[in-house]
Design goal:
The protein is of the alpha+beta class. It has one domain: PAS domain (Beta-Lactamase, 2-Layer Sandwich). It is built from four helices and six strands; from the N terminus they run αββααβαβββ. It has a six-stranded antiparallel sheet with strand order 2-1-6-5-4-3, sandwiched between helices. Strand 4 and strand 5 form a beta hairpin.
Length: 129
């Protein structure tokens, strides 16, 4: 599948960042995460099956920072894609390797020419305890 140049360039940028980064397409499908994200998630991107944002809730056992369940409509990436506004949130996340992480996520939309939604970028990092 051919991706817009903006997404290709964001993917290239993400490969150079030390900060974990995920890229999702406009439909909410995870299309890339960088090496820094691989260390948190416990798996290489190339080894990961396609995931939709709704599946990410169960695969990564995402929770609110207090440990309670987070509705898919409030997951930063889904919220981001729907509302096209930046969002920051504290979450709990369990990687593919079973390790639990307390993270902060900042997600923002990628908007192309003429206001076309191209996807969502999410940058995250482990919270200091």
């Amino acid at each position: 599948m051919t991706q817009p140049i903006e997404i290709i360039l964001l993917r290239q940028l993400a490969t150079t960042l030390a900060l974990p980064v995920w890229l999702l397409d406009p439909a909410g499908e995870l299309i890339f995460f960088n090496e820094a994200a691989e260390r948190v998630l416990g798996r290489r991107f190339q080894e990961t099956e396609p995931l939709h944002v709704q599946q990410m809730l169960s695969v990564f056992n995402m929770t609110l920072s207090d440990g309670s369940a987070i509705p898919v409509t409030e997951l930063p990436l889904a919220f981001q894609a729907a509302l096209r506004h930046p969002l920051h949130r504290e979450l709990g996340l369990t990687g593919f390797d079973g390790r639990v992480h307390a993270i902060e996520v900042t997600a923002f939309p990628v908007i192309g020419h003429q206001g076309v939604a191209l996807g969502v970028v999410a940058m995250f990092w482990e919270r200091q305890r």
